Amino acid sequence: MVGVPEPHSGWTFITSHARVLAAIADNTNVRIRDIAARCRLTERAVQRIISDLEEGGYLSHTRDGRTNTYRIEPDKVLRHPAEAGLPVASLLSLLVQDETDRAKAPEPVMARTPSARH
Q1: In principle, which of 4, 39, 66, 71 could form an S-S bond with 19, CB 3.0–4.6 Å?
Q2: What is residue 40's three-state secondary structure?
Q3: Which residues contact 39 (CB under 8 A, 6 or more apart)?
Q4: What is the pLDDT of residues 46-102, one digit of tens each?
Q5: How far apart are the first and last CA of the chain?
Q6: Around 78, how many Cα atoms within 13 Å sit in the side-chain half-sphere?
Q7: Cα–Cα distance between 36 and 14 in angstroms, integer?
Q8: How many C-beta atoms surround the C-beta of residue 65 within 10 A?
Q9: 112 pLDDT exceeds 70?
Q10: Where does the pLDDT of residue 103 fall: very low under 50, low under 70, confident under 90, or very high at 90 and above?
Q11: What H or E segment, with its residue span, contains residue 51?
Q12: E-assigned strands of the chain?
């Protein structure tokens, strides 16, 4: 069983709603447990976010046995006035591509500080 993820302190650039939507865009049959692990959220938080996204018209789902299949509305515009007219598809194209590229990319090389000689 997957444990509760460690909480994150401080601010981030991407909201939990955007992370959950990107996880669903990456796999429309993804389980809530897997979304929670990927996004470092609790399963209950993911359920609330999915509910928010469905109520907002950004997401819908159909149930087939024990599996949910999600459908994202790519033409639905983002909610904030600063992004007026920007569709969800534009946001997801950045987030999902970034996740794919990040999985392929090698570990970043950290800058080294020259060591002092004694």
Answers
A1: 39
A2: coil
A3: 16, 19, 20, 23, 46
A4: 999 999 999 999 999 999 999 999 999 999 999 888 888 899 999 999 888 655 565
A5: 52
A6: 17
A7: 15
A8: 5
A9: no
A10: low
A11: helix 43-55
A12: 59-64, 67-72
